[in-house]
Every structure is written in C-alpha cells, then in structure tokens.
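Researcher: Please generate the 3D structure of the following complex. Treat every line as part of one assembly.
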Amino acid sequence: MHPNTAFEKNHLIRFHHCDPAGIVFYPEYLVIIDELVEDWFIEGMGTSFADLHMNDRIGVPAARIEVDFIAPSKIGDILCLSLLVTRLGNKSFTIRVEGRVGEQVRMRAILVRVVAGLDGLHGITIPPALRERLRRFLAADGVDLLEAQQA
Amino acid sequence: MHPNTAFEKNHLIRFHHCDPAGIVFYPEYLVIIDELVEDWFIEGMGTSFADLHMNDRIGVPAARIEVDFIAPSKIGDILCLSLLVTRLGNKSFTIRVEGRVGEQVRMRAILVRVVAGLDGLHGITIPPALRERLRRFLAADGVDLLEAQQA
Amino acid sequence: MHPNTAFEKNHLIRFHHCDPAGIVFYPEYLVIIDELVEDWFIEGMGTSFADLHMNDRIGVPAARIEVDFIAPSKIGDILCLSLLVTRLGNKSFTIRVEGRVGEQVRMRAILVRVVAGLDGLHGITIPPALRERLRRFLAADGVDLLEAQQA
Amino acid sequence: MHPNTAFEKNHLIRFHHCDPAGIVFYPEYLVIIDELVEDWFIEGMGTSFADLHMNDRIGVPAARIEVDFIAPSKIGDILCLSLLVTRLGNKSFTIRVEGRVGEQVRMRAILVRVVAGLDGLHGITIPPALRERLRRFLAADGVDLLEAQQA
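Model: Done. Output below.
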C-alpha cells in the first residue's frame, strides 16, 4: 500500500479549448493534461520540464495514452484535476488523471510517459532523484517495479 | 468477413506539429487524426462535418481514445495514415487508425466516436444513410452490431 | 489623462508553446494573449467570456492584430504580461499588450476586438456596463471616443 | 516592376479551426498562414523548413505580424490563399498574404520573417540560393533592398 496524496490542480475551461459544439475539443484535453503534468513536475516534485530539458537533456514523451471522455465540459467550467502514479517502471512511468466538476467525472486518462534522452530519443533508466520524487505520488494500488523485483 | 478497403491519406509532418525535442507533440497527433476523420467524411463517404453540423445538427464527439506512440515522427516526414471501422454500434462507432512512414509504424490509435445531437449532446441512433456509408469501411475483423443482432 | 492601472498577469512559457527551435511558436503568443484577455474579463472586470457568451449572447472577436516579436522566449520563462485599453469606440475597443521577462521586452501587441452578437456576427454598441468596466483600464494616452464626441 | 506570380493554395476550414461562435478562432489563421509558408517553401521554392532546419541549421521566425480579419470564415469554407514577397531585405523578408472565398476577402496579413541561425537565434544574411528563390515571388510593388542599394 502506498497511501500517497494525488497532485491536484484546478483548470479553467477557456474559450479557445471549445469547439463549434460549445464543448472542449478533445485534443485540447491532452494539452490540459500536459500542462497538469508540467505543473506537477514544478509544484509537486520541485523540478521542471525546463530543468530536465536544458540541464539534464532528458524529456518525458508519451508512449501511450487512453482517455475516456465521460461528460462534456463547457467554457467557464473549473475542472478539478487529480494525478497519481500507478506504475513506476525502470525507464517509464504510468499516471492516472481524473477531471471532475463537483461530483461529476468529466474525463479519465491513463498516460505512459517514457524518460528519454533528448538527443537519441531512446528510453533511459529513470534517474534516482526523479524516481524518488515520482514515488511520493504512487497510488495506493500503484506498483513500483523496482520494489517488486527486490521483494 | 467485411473485405473493405481502408481510407488512406498522406499527412505532412509540419514545423508546428513538433516540440522542442524536434518530434511531433503527441496531442498534435490527435488533431492530425481529427483531420483524417474529417477528410474521410468528405472524400471517403461523400458527406462532411459541415453538412452534419449545419444541416443535420449532429456531431461526432469522441467518447474514448487510445493511442500508442510507437516511433517518433519529425518535421518533413510524410505520414501514411489508414483508417478502418472496427465496430459499428447503434449510436457510436469505433475506428482504428495507423500511421506509417514506409514500413515503420509510428502510431496506432483506436477512437470511439458518438453520433450526437448538437443541442442536447446526447447520443442518437446513427442515421441509416450515414450507417450505410460507415459500413463501406468496416474492417475484415470488424463488427456491425445491428447485423450481429439480426443474425 | 486617464491615469489607470494596467491589468497584469504572469504566464509560464510551457513545453507545448515551443517549437523545434526551442522558442515560443508565434501563433501560441496569440493564444497566450487570448488567455490574458479572458483573465482580464474575469479578474479585472468581474465579468467573463462565459457570461457574455451564454447570457448576453455576445462575443469579442478580433478585427485586427499587430504583434512585434522582439526577443524569443523559452520554456520555463515567466512572461509578465500587461494590458491597457488604448481606444474605446462605439462597437469596438483596442488594447495594447506587452510581455516582459525582467526588464527585457519580449513581445508587444495591439488588438482590436469587436463587441458582436453571437448569432449575426455583426458589431453591436458596447453595453454601458461593459463600457464602464473597460474604461477603468484606459491608458493615460488612451482615447474614449464617446467622451471625445461629447467634449 | 516585378511582374511575378503569387503562390496560391486552397485551405479547407476545418472543425478544429473554429470556436464556439462557429467561426475561425483567429490564432488558427496564423497556423494556417504558417502552413501556407511551409507549402510555399516546398512547392513554390523547391526547398523546405525540414531542409533548412536539419541541413542548414536555419529557421525563419516571425519578427512582426499584422492581420486584418475582414469577414468570418466557417467550417467547410475553402479559403483561397495567395502569398507575395513585398520586401526582400538583407536578413529578413516581408510577405503579404490574402485569404478569399470567392470574391470576398476574409483576411489580409503582413508577416516579417527573419532568416536566423537555429543555435544563436540571431539574424543572418539570407543565403544567395534562398534569396534567388524568394525573388521569384516579389510583388509588382515589392522592394528588393539589395537591388535598390546597387541601383
């Protein structure tokens, strides 16, 4: 059991997120999730995409995404986003993101992000300092593969 | 068996699709896929998002997406996209999209699109004329739920 | 002289704003400015795009933009944005936006926004309550055309 | 007089270009123009952003844009875009872009693009081969500053 806390952040649904049907155009949810992940790196883990990019020359491209669009969101909605790590692998990690307005779930997503060298675009072992930070957001039902191997 | 042909279209990877790592920013793939679906409606099925929107007052929002980003794409790549229907339901349909450059698969996606009234944003029974057009792109391993019910 | 205060807001330059050269892709500045205008309506003027859209059925489309990209911005930069009204017309208003990082000006923009009915997309007289709010942000060198006519 | 021909290309207005008012969201016009410039490099001048980027390590960032949004465009419109060079400087060039549907002008834009080294982001003298290609699209009222200096 990993009784960790989710990273949470509110996100205003803006005019430019919405399509002619007046609801969020679904690829915009992926941009919103990317902003959440970026804020999580900065505010939740005390690092940043900028640091990783410019100092460590690593990035975290997506290897896989799954998103369920459960109910539409409209301009002016405040989407409450929460993020947890569900799998901490050797070279990649998986996160689960949920977006709610009040009690209503609007969207659920699962993203696999790979830790990769910027130049070769190949996966690299997650640096220990970053791994330690990611662990703080491991879900209660999350799996740390390194821990599992050592058990 | 539904020995239908995929809808295929080439898509140039442009400067604005790419991120500071020099590869396609993954939410842009969803916009590229949305353009493919739009072209499929026009060129493959002889209808259009514009017609559906403005005349029939229906849209086709996404209910679920799954995307595997298998290999990165760079500016100047010509992505060969192909699309097939894998499930034809009562109010929604599922498509499978693959993007290749030469023999290399770059991306595979599965999208569930709902046929919905623009005003209420509720799913509606797929109009017969649209259903007939969608059937022409049913994959060999695809399922037509109406056909299955009648069998 | 209109000794009013600018609306100011910081904006993080994110990974998804940047292009393969590692700097903000210039159309993204327009999206950033649109978010600033949206925040100004909410936080500065106590109204919102959502209210205007859904209750008053009016929007504020752009009629003209001019932007000078003076120095590039990179991921992780905190852009300090400031906004003032430079012209308050009968059916439209002009704003001046500046983006700085420290003392360095990165971008200057002038935008003409029209107050328009959503349905007809025709310009309408700015409602008095909105006009009064816009006046609070009139630049020292700004012009209120109604005031000028009455003088 | 430079009796050159404009580079012309049709561009479909797509669902994802449009906002909740059902018209093109104005920053999307800038992306559409960027695609036009990219197509002009490839189809009009026989080079490409990809070549310039990856082989010559140069880019063409925008230094200034001016856009007039004259009439709104909607989903399904085919925008006929035309592009001419109006100023050919030492390190930068200016283009004029017009978008029409039938006889109706929808949008006019002026863009100053700088030829810049990717690494330093400083302007560089336009390479002679690129300059020669740009000259082919010089407007009848366009100015070639090098020619003007030598006259």
